[in-house]
Amino acid sequence: MFYMKVIGRNDLCTCGSGKKYKKCCGKSAVVSIDEIVENELNDIQHDLFQYALHMYDDFFDEALEEYSDIFDELPEDVYDLFSFFSRVWVISSIPADEKTILEEYVDIYGSKYSRPRTRDLLQRWKGVRPSAYTVTEVDEKRTYMTVRDIFTEEEHQVRIYETETGVEAGYFVFGTLLPAGANSIFFPTYLELPTEFAGDMRKMILDLFEKSSETNPVDFMSKEFINVFMVFMFGKSAVTAEDYEWKTPKQQEVAEMFQIRMKEYGYAEDIVGIGLSLWHKYCDSKNPRIIKTGIYEAALVYMVEKIYPNDSISTQEELAEEYDVSSSSISSKFKELEKVLQDEIAEYEKQQIEAAE
Fold first, then answer.
1. Eight-state DSSP code of residue 212
2. pLDDT in tens, the chain (357 residues)
3. Nearby residues of 93 by Cβ (< 8 Å), 6 or more positions away
4. Cβ(252)–Cβ(296) under 8 Å?
5. Residue 317, number of CB atoms within 10 A of its CB
6. Fewest Cβ atoms closer than 10 Å to its Cβ: which of 38, 69, 101, 249?
7. Do 138 and 152 contact (CB within 8 A), yes or no?
8. Measured at the alpha carbon of residue 277, what is the angle toward residues 274 and 278, in degrees to the nearest 5?
9. CB neighbour list of residue 281: distance below 8 Å, 6 or more residues apart
């Protein structure tokens, strides 16, 4: 009978290198339990995604229905990306009945895995939500990166896979982290921004959080993911009248009607946002007691159109007819707005001149 000789880890390696087996070919044969568990969890997350797509196709449509206007206006080159990450958010954050899809998957399939560590980590997956991170370090082999959550300052070591090699220290990344033993993995991947944009992006997202009604960043990201994602993709979110606190219902009504009118006349969202910001500053300063909203709406429209004229700029007479008020009342309120907001108006006009040059 032939017996195969078993090579001891301290024996010379059979490859002829002169090194001990454990320091040579045996070294690559050693796989840690962390690596085994991480690889298993990586396979599980892909299975989870396929389960969600197969079982909950209609639910995705229902959950994203209220954002249909946003989807309709997306450029073709980002539609698929937006759709993909929106579905990742739905899987982790939006309950289908009483549980999220992720929670349901773990409850159904989590117990079938033989390793207790895998089962324990899967239970921790049920609490994950999307977040935003600053990359603080990338190792020399580009195998791992350390990321810091912009809300909690908590750090995570994250595995980098072959398809995710562009990231550098200082980058800004956005995605959903899954615990995977000693490391974390993104579900299923992440979006990145270079260092030069990281600071501004961090500030914009934190500002969005501060303006929201949420005090917990987990709840904020669960509910406001689409708005945060819009900021990440396009650098800013559309400012609306609802984003501000108004001292009286009439002041808010002026803001809402101005917003509707300017959009109907084709003004860009950033210009509408500037008009809302100017009106809010004026209201904070003067707290006007408004009886007839049309006078203020017309004066605000006239002021913004003077700063940002287009082909259909309105005269005071035209606005008077449109809002059923006198042109003299529009002129009076416009002068009042102009006096209170002269510094802000001058700055916007300066920006217009510089942009034209």
1. S
2. 333 344 455 666 655 556 664 555 555 544 577 888 998 999 999 999 999 999 999 999 999 998 888 888 788 878 899 999 999 999 999 999 899 999 999 999 999 999 999 999 999 999 999 999 999 999 988 889 999 999 999 999 999 986 656 899 999 999 999 999 889 999 999 999 999 889 889 988 998 898 888 999 999 999 999 989 988 888 765 678 887 889 999 999 999 999 999 988 888 877 888 899 899 999 999 999 999 999 999 999 999 999 988 767 889 999 999 999 999 999 999 999 999 999 989 988 887 776 665
3. 100, 129, 130, 221, 222, 225
4. no
5. 11
6. 69
7. no
8. 90
9. 340, 341, 344
Q: Which two tokens stand for residue 207?
A: 């500002």
Residue-by-residue DSSP string for 150-161:
TTT--EEEEE--
Spatial distance between the Cα atoms of 6 and 337, rounded to a whole number of angstroms: 90
Tell whether the torsion through CA atoms of 288, 291, 296 and 297 is positive or negative.
Answer: positive
What amino acid occupies position 96?
A
> 138 and 167 in contact (C-beta within 8 Å)?
yes
Query: Residue 144 burial (CB < 10 Å; 0-12/13-18/19+)?
Result: middle
pTM: 0.62
